[in-house]
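hey so i finally got around to running the thing on that chain from the lab meeting. sorry it took forever, my laptop kept dying and i had to restart like 3 times. anyway pasting the input first so we r on the same page abt which one it is
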Amino acid sequence: MMKYYQYIREIARLIFAQMMGRIGEDERYKLEDWKNASPENEKLYAKYVSEKFVADKFRFIQENNTEEAYREFSKSVDALIRHRRIYCFCRYAAFALLLIGLGILFYPDSVQQKQDIPLISDINPGSCKAILTLSDGKQVHISDTTYSVYTELETENKKNDSLRYHTITIPRGGEYFFTLSDGSRIWMNSESEVRFPLQFCGGHREISMSGEVFFQIARDTSSPFLIHTRQGDIRVLGTSFNVRDYANEPLLTTTLVSGKVAFNKSDGKFILSPGEQLQMNRQSGDVTVAAVNTRLYCSWKDGRFVFEKQRLEEIMLSIERWYDIQVIYEDENLKNLLFSGNIKRYDKLEPLLEMLKLVNKVDIVATGNQIAIRYNKENR
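ok and heres what got predicted. didnt touch it at all, straight out
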């Protein structure tokens, strides 16, 4: 596999050298041999030298604001633009990207005869989907809008006005938004669950949750809102905040955007102010509260992945759930690499993995829905 990646990088280097006008005679023959090896290679070559490819690559950098990737990519083109006219910048910049990221875009026919283009290009983002479990155990698959939720709930409410609890469960590769009977709004991320009553009554507003949920709680001073998690309870009046409580992650986090919340556990009570985050270690029970950039923890509900010097393992946990993939690491130390970026949540998987590769530290191989991450040869 390493020989394959070396081959890919060599082809990318030859294309780049040709565009720069610095390709030697032997190198030119080598590139021609690769082009002529198959019709697919000829198509790929035409694609990579096209103005559209150049424009798309440059637009990717601009739209996704991947600052760390941009710094790395800039190192590759700084020397070029010192000696070339400005109008050439976009072309050379795109081929600097080509040198770094070409390996995830195609498999040459001469190396992989049965698979010309990896399945990574076919991995789509998650979508609006959920399972509604009614109080009688009946399950209904819902998607697109909240109308289906209310149709089922209102139908059952007419049969019996007593307090009934329902559950919305989000599978891998899903998300959902809905509104509670008091007007509180709830955004649910992949692999999350919320249990709630059809109608709040008796001055009590209580729900339970797991996974990751963003709340906008309707203010009602006479009826505080209580959220039960496996680690403790969150008490609010009217506020916006994010709770992340996945069983396979070491921390429960509550990030407050506006208002005030109290986190209650058996041995203490912790009050959060806007811009603060509470973290509780599941194993030790230790709790810390610190000021954070809330956008890093709440942007998922607005259609972005935003991370700043975040461990690769933490980033990929969110990616796994949203794209319904499995990530494996060739080396455990890879999990501790730090990345920064800001990328669209609703794009296919390929642009996000390309952004990660732009920092030129890792290679990424896709086989179906399994993503393997390894150090590239410069970092071995």
